[in-house]
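quick one
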Amino acid sequence: MLIVTEEVCKKVIDRQSAFNSVEAVFGAMAKGDAYNFPVIREAIGYQDALYGFKSGFDKAGLTLGLKSGGYWPNNLKQGLTNHQSTIFLFNPDTGQLDALVGGNYLTAVRTAASSSVSIAHLARKDAKVLGMVGAGHQSAFQLRAAIEQRDFEKVVAWNFHPDMLPALGKVANECGLDFVAMEREQLGATADVIITITSAHEALLMKDWIKPGTHIAAMGTDTKGKQELDPELVQAATMFTDEIAQSITIGETQHAIAQNLIAKKDITPIGDVINGAHQGRSTESEITIFDGTGVGLQDLAVASVAAKLAKEKNLGVEVEL
Ligand code: NAD
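structure w/ nicotinamide-adenine-dinucleotide:
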C-alpha cells in the first residue's frame, strides 16, 4: 500500500492534470461508466464538526475508493485548515487498499478544476471580468484555475468578511489582473463570469442583479440548508451540475426544487456537454449556472493520478498492512 502525503500531492498534481481528470470523470459519469454512492455527512456533536464519506466507482478508469473527512470549524485557531480529508483507493479486482492519499490540497484543486471545466464549456468566449463571491481557503485556487479558461482582464470581488479580500486581491495582482472590491449588486452588473464559494445559508446573488450572458459557477453549497443564489435566478437560468442527485438534495438547486420553481428535468449534467450530447450555452444572452456540489469521483480521479505519479517518481511510501 502506498502513502501519498499532502506535500507529494502538491508536487505531482498541477491545475492542468486536475482539469483533465475532472473533465474526464464528469464525462464518464454522464455516460453511466462511473457512479457515486450516496453521501454520508453527519454533525458528530463534538468540536462542531461535520464528518462524512464520499465514495464511488469509475468502471472506465477502474478507480474505486472513498474520501473521508469533513469540516472542523475550530481548526483555524490551531493553524490548521478547517476542511480535513483523506482519500482511500482500493484495488477494484481484489478490494485491497492500494493507496492512502492526503485529501486537503486535492480537494481544493479538484473543486477549482470543476468550476474551471464549467467555465471552459459554458462561459461566453468574450468574457473579460471575473466576479468572486467569497474569499476563504478555496477562493485563490478557484481564481487561479478560472483565469486560465478565458482572457480575463479584471477581477471584481465581494466577501461577507471584507478583511479577507486583500489576500485574494494579492493573488489576482500576482496573476497580472486588476482587483476591485465592490457590493454584490454592482458585481452582478459588472462580471461576465461569477464564482460563488462561501459557506452562506441564504441567497447572496439576486436574479435582477445578474446581467444577460453571465456564467455562474456556484461552488459553495454542498450541504442541505446552504444557499448562495436566489431560487428565481436558478429558475431563470439554464442549469448544469456535476451530479443531479446531489444537486437537488445538497446542492444549489435544492431550494428552487423545494419551491417547485424547477424540476429535475431542467438540470443537465455537465458531462453531457463534455460528451457532445448537449450543446451547453445556446445563446449569447442566456444565463448559465453550474451547480458544483463536489462528487467523490472527482477526489478519486485526482487521487489515482497522484498515486500513479508518486509511484512512478518514487515519491510515495510503501507499507505492508
Ligand atoms: P472558508 O471557511 O475558508 O471560507 C468561508 C467563506 O465563506 C469566506 O469567504 C467567508 O467570508 C464566507 N462566509 C462565512 N459565513 C458567511 C455568510 N454567513 N454569508 C456569506 N459568506 C460567508 O471555506 P472554504 O474552504 O473557502 O470553502 C467555502 C465553501 O465551499 C464552504 O461552504 C465549503 O463547504 C464549500 N466547498 C465546496 C466544495 C465543492 O466541491 N462544491 C469543495 C470544497 C468546499
